[in-house]
Q: What sequence folds into this?
């Protein structure tokens, strides 16, 4: 027979583990970023608005958004609940199949900052690219808004909650 204090202690530890783990998991949540391939599968199963963060490795404001904005619980909750969120390196050198088409970075070797075809299609302003570029699309994958700048938490939440 197991002594009652042991059962009590065991139960208390189990509760602390459960609730303590839950609190940590809430704090440790992050935006559920998808690739374009994952996005296509998700859209086929359940249409939903789309948020795309076009970034580059050299962009200071992109890194700041990663650390300061995309870590805020309100931003995480909104993006995860109401949007499919995609992070896309605008200069990536990879082949991406999406919507029955193949997209590549045809500027590699031709430009100092080669821009992938997906970024060329969705993230240009006046023919040029500025990082970060944030694009919002509706459930039918039509662009509803583009933002060519760093956005703090307040401005991003306003943009995503029209």
A:
């Amino acid at each position: 027979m197991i002594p009652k204090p042991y059962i009590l202690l065991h139960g208390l530890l189990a509760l602390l583990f459960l609730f303590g783990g839950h609190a940590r998991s809430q704090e440790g949540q992050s935006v559920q970023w998808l690739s374009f391939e994952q996005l296509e599968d998700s859209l086929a199963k359940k249409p939903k608005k789309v948020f795309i963060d076009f970034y580059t490795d050299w962009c200071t404001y992109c890194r700041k958004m990663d650390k300061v904005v995309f870590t805020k619980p309100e931003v995480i909750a909104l993006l995860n609940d109401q949007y499919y969120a995609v992070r896309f390196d605008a200069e990536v050198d990879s082949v991406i199949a999406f919507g029955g088409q193949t997209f590549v970075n045809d500027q590699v070797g031709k430009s100092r900052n080669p821009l992938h075809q997906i970024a060329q299609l969705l993230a240009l302003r006046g023919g040029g690219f500025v990082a970060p570029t944030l694009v919002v699309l509706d459930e039918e994958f039509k662009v509803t808004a583009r933002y060519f700048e760093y956005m703090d938490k307040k401005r991003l939440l306003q943009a995503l909650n029209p």
